[in-house]
Design brief:
five-stranded mixed sheet, 10 strands, alpha/beta, 339 residues
């Protein structure tokens, strides 16, 4: 049996544990327990509830890894960024395992894990341009190496994924909003003239609060006439999705144009994060990559959202570099501005 790393992910509302081979990146075991059903009543993640559910689910998954414990060489865990109370559940389990099994501990940046979801079964490719879109982040990154990942642009307010969740909540469509809004949009047409954020501004950043507010105003105007019809919801979702993706594409175009002028430009572009599962976004990004002669890299749909496999894959890089964390000093960090 090959040498393995056990990895734990609990940054938000997905409890996940994986076992990955250090030498060949073989994914030996992976399980994720989602909390979507429990949080759907509230239209979003309730941190305290998420923490309690992690405390219940993580030990159940861990029990299934017992046959592999003798092959472990390290314990890895997401410790940043995320919800502090949920990160703590994973970190405490990882520290306990590290101490009990006398194994090195590896703290993993959750966002770096998303980047490595592109390379679950292969060596990483650098340099690389990356669009990270999730419920918590919207970023354009230049990844020059494992150690050097530069944030070129990020959201000033809501994230791309978060805006989908909030629109779904305003329309009483359910949670999580991403797939629900995308599905609803397929039934509608883009009849509402919603703004494309920062369209006339030179600021290289993202913003979704204004677009979200425009959706709210349309809902309020229609609600004054009576109950919201399904056709109205579908058309509004289609219009919102079009504007949100158009905003991403405008900023990505600037990113691609700047890259084309560089002497050492990147030839690969990855899209990662839970919201990267949006098929319309994937289609638009593919067209842009084709235009600029860049190869598009995408994570498998099942590994777009939070998962321990991507955390384990990033941890392999740390293990090879002997970059370990001390049990008494590994801390959780809810937010992060640098990698």
């Amino acid at each position: 049996m090959q040498n393995l790393i056990l990895s734990i992910e609990s940054s938000c509302d997905d409890s996940s544990i994986a076992l990955i081979g250090i030498d060949a990146y073989t994914l030996i075991f992976h399980q994720k327990i989602s909390q979507e059903a429990e949080h759907s009543t509230f239209g979003g993640v309730v941190p305290e509830l998420a923490s309690r559910l992690h405390a219940e689910s993580l030990p159940l998954i861990l029990e299934k890894t017992k046959p592999y414990l003798s092959n472990l060489k390290a314990i890895a865990v997401t410790n940043e960024p995320g919800l502090n109370v949920t990160l703590l559940e994973g970190v405490m389990m990882a520290k306990t395992l590290s101490y009990a099994l006398n194994l090195p501990l590896i703290g993993v940046n959750h966002l770096k894990g998303h980047l490595y979801s592109l390379f679950l079964n292969s060596d990483a490719i650098f340099p690389l341009g990356v669009l990270l879109v999730s419920g918590g982040h919207t970023m354009l990154l230049e990844a020059e190496s494992f150690e050097k990942i530069n944030i070129k642009a990020q959201s000033l307010d809501d994230s791309f994924g978060e805006s989908f969740d909030k629109v779904a909540k305003m329309l009483s469509l359910g949670y999580p909003g991403g797939p629900i809004v995308e599905s609803c949009a397929k039934k509608g047409v883009t009849k509402f003239k919603l703004p494309i954020p920062l369209r006339s501004k030179k600021q290289f950043a993202f913003s979704f609060s204004g677009l979200k507010n425009a959706v709210r105003l349309e809902i309020e105007a229609k609600s004054s006439e009576g109950a919201l019809e399904e056709g109205f919801k579908a058309d509004l979702c289609a219009s919102f999705q079009e504007s949100a993706i158009a905003h991403l594409m405008q900023k990505c175009k600037i990113f691609f144009e700047e890259n084309a002028k560089k002497s050492r430009s990147w030839k690969y572009f990855g899209v990662v994060g839970g919201a990267s599962a949006n098929l319309v976004l994937r289609e638009k990004i593919q067209a842009m990559c084709n235009f600029y002669g860049v190869e598009l890299l995408l994570a498998p749909l099942e590994f777009c959202s939070d998962n321990a496999a991507m955390i384990g894959r990033a941890a392999v890089e740390s293990y090879r570099r002997k970059e370990f964390s001390k049990i008494d000093s590994l801390q959780t960090r809810p937010r992060i501005d640098v990698f």
